[in-house]
Amino acid sequence: MTDIEMAREAIESTYIGECDIVEYVTIKNDITKRNEHKEEKVLEKQKCRISFKNISNSNQSETTNNVTQTIKLFISPDINIKNGSKIIVTQNGKKQEYKNSGEPARYETHQEVMLELFKGWA
Question: How far apart are CA 89 and CA 116, in angstroms?
Answer without folding.
Answer: 12
